[in-house]
Amino acid sequence: MIMEITVEVNGSSYTRSVEPRLLLVHFLRDELGLTGTHWGCDTSNCGTCVVWLDDVPVKSCTVLAVMADGHSVRTVEGLEGADGLDPVQQGFMACHGLQCGFCTPGMLMTARWLIDHNPAPSEADIREAISGQLCRCTGYENIVRSVRWAAEHEAGLRERTVEDAGTEVQA
Amino acid sequence: MQVPAQFRYEKAVSVEHALTLLGRYGPESRVVAGGHSLIPMMKLRLAQPEALIDINDLHELAIISVERHVLCIGALTRHADLLSSALVGEHFPIFHDAERVIADPVVRNRGTVGGSLCQADPSEDLSAAFAAVRGEAVIVSPEGRRTVPVREFFLGPYQTVVDPGELLVQLRVPIRSSASAYQKVERRAGDWAVAAAGAELVLDDGVVADAGIGLAALGAPNFHAREAESFLVGGPATDERFAEAARIAAEHCNPIADQRGPEEYKRHLAKTLVTRVLSVARTRWHGLHSGEKAR
């Protein structure tokens, strides 16, 4: 059985003919060439394949591509904005949040979602959020620091924006 | 690379459509929602359905509500939504306790309440939680709908009373003045339970008016500890009585030795966890009713 599906990925619409058994992670990597999403354990344990499906992080090795038909997906390639890398990407650079980098795409997608929903996460919040994702290099310390860096950096940016707005009003 | 075998795929657009598709494809078809049990099993060929019927678009099955003093939880409710529901937490904190230790946050975004029950894994936390609070399962078929107590829902490991042509659509829990709690011992974050227990208590002036005790991963018949519940009812809600109830629960369950531990260890956990959840439920009861006492 072959089915035609249309999936919006990082804002662009893609139509492909796929077998129903094709997993979302392989659709992204093999059909669309978006190899930023990694494929690891195949058992929904390691979390390197995390992408957003309709704005919610999911493990794409355990979602069928046909389930994403008519839905939107955001991958690590969709993090960078017009003004450069996303703050979580910057945080991982600033705080050495990766060594081999295999777990990083999944960590970044979960971190982005966490900060969107909890702009000032505690260390416990961060550790809970990434508890379904494995890193064999960092011992998680630097990943937690990276996410905190991103959250604090964004909070700082917001404050400065407010200050700037205040200055403009005064001027 | 683990990939499922070939299958046909259909997206149901309504409950009636899902039932039609189930009838059309017969017993070799499977309903898929979150897919976090079924898809891994299909990768390993532990399951090889000829057709998958996707019910993810049936949003009417993803609603949590209270209707006439009954908490209604749609079968398609994601674990994450059960955990974030204030309504659920207000009436049955046992579900929030359990959800915090079910898999991990990303898996909870996808996995569903109905899927967890229908999978009927002997270690499923929600099965024990629903058994503790005496929930009911609403099952529909082309012939109509029937309601089955969760305590009669399971026929054995990975087997339920849901027939091939039927669909689990809702879980219902009658709301009463009670307090509840759930605890689990796991080897690492997000793992299945080595052992887990949940309890619901109704107290009346220090006496146990009603008690429900659920057990997961302990081989308890239908996920509950009937003998321990009977022992508790009518007696004082004291530490000594809780310890004895826990001893009875540990004696009557049937844990098996596996990679998560030997039988003796699991019985020890059963005893410890039942004692603890009864104690937490009692504390919560007093927290809820301290105002009444003062008056």
From TrEMBL, chain B:
PROSITE patterns: FAD_PCMH
Molecular-function annotations in GO: FAD binding; oxidoreductase activity
Key words, A-Z: FAD, Flavoprotein, Oxidoreductase
Highest taxon listed in the record's lineage: Bacteria
Pfam families: CO_deh_flav_C, FAD_binding_5
Domain FAD-binding PCMH-type: 2-178
PANTHER family: XANTHINE DEHYDROGENASE SUBUNIT C-RELATED
Protein's UniProt name: Carbon monoxide dehydrogenase
Organism: Prauserella flavalba
